[in-house]
Queue: 2 jobs
Job 1
Amino acid sequence: MNVIDADGGSARRGFAALVIAEAVALAIAAAAMIWLDLGWAGPVIMLLLVAAFTFTLVRATEARAKAAGNFSSAMARYNKRMLVAGGIYVVGLFGAVWAHDELGASGVTAFLFAFAPSIGVLMMVWAMARLIADETDEYLRYRYVRASLFGLGGLLTLATVWGFFEQFDLVPHAPTWLAVPIFAIGLGFGNCLPRGGRE
Amino acid sequence: MNNRLKVLRAERNWSQSDLAERLGVSRQSVNAIETGKYDPSLPLAFRIAELFGLAIEEVFTSPSRHQSKAF
């Protein structure tokens, strides 16, 4: 039992160190790109770095889940879907920005360009839904649902409070595409909820 | 809901991973059930009981029954 605890603690520490190292590396890379002023190459290099770091992070997350004994084939499929969706999101976002700036658009074409970044995000939402549907382990499914409810509750709370603050001109306007990232942050916090007491 | 999972597992010299594999669930599920943090569904509770060759009430006991016995 102590061996399992030691392994779990080591995996957690390793994972936290990786997250911190990647965040620091990205911040340094971003500062270097701004300082070097590489033009269009800068964002492309940053994108490649983010993609590589995201892939590493996903693999580390899987290793951590395996060490904790809560990894499942549904989670493996979810990770793959999220990586693909993330790639499509980045291509859609940068493609839409480029097309909007370089080609210009109006009418239906403008709507299509504006919709392009949403495709990847909608795929992420679909992947989250599939995870809950695909998971055969009832305890893990319960945890996903609990984390989702936590994320949803956080999003609804923040959106309501921010909305009224905005209505009274107390805070700046917040773009609604922030909904999914905020939900995802809540989901992350929901996964870290203490598991003490009766569930 | 109280259970005798840990004792039954120890009697067979099974680790949590062994039991999880036999049940087709994650090790964390076994841990959560064993420590009383999660109550399994009825189908999973039956599967656990059948795996140990016991009746379900020989593995799981109602906390209210446990309390009433104490009085």
Job 2
Amino acid sequence: MRKYRTYLWLLLFLGMRAGGNLSLAWGTKHFPQTLAANPLVYLRSMLDPFVAGGIIMLILAMLAQLALLSVADLSFFLPVTSVGYVIAALSGRFFLNEAVSLQRWLAVGLIFAGAVLVSRTPQNTTAAVETAPLEVSE
Amino acid sequence: MKIWFLVVVQIITTAASDLLQSHEMKRVGAQSVSARGMAHMLHLLVERRWLLLSIVSLAISFFAFMALVQIAPLSFAVPASAASFIVETVLAKFWLKEKVGPTRIVGACLVLCGVVLLGQ
């Protein structure tokens, strides 16, 4: 049950993060002013539907992340969610037409490979009493 | 130059935010996947001081990311933020006292290599 819940939050987190990043990138790249230290420029850019949509999706991703951290360790969460780096590279390449060099693909691949390795270890190592019987019964 | 400044600001504030969140949510306990669960989480944000500080940190990180994603490719900006993961794993071990086994260390090293390669 706990495991199922963990992966449900993870899926929600990844989907919202990927969609949010893409929408935000599209919105800011098409925004005429440069985002600098000026808060007014930020506020104005948030009126753009793509920027606003991206922010809403990223807020939902953040709430899913909080929930995820309540059931899983930070050192499980961080590597597993770095699958998002691959998704970001792919969406940059195919939706934003970015030129992604072989070296960058290799870099992203290494990050992903590291993520897969680390994600094969237990989700929670500082676990409270509640989890122990559940983990055994699986 | 501006790109790297934004990357560094983003990494530091992201690491601070994640560590504070994990620290606080562990004390809160497991949350359920539902609309009520989501509402409860919003309530927690107001109630827990460290959680609120982590959100401030996250906000700074986010504005740096917005500026970064405007001038740098998405396929660079997002993987570059993976550098915060290295900082966080070390702090997760020593500050949050999570156990980090050999498989995890090898995995973490691969991620580190990837980030270094991305930076060249």
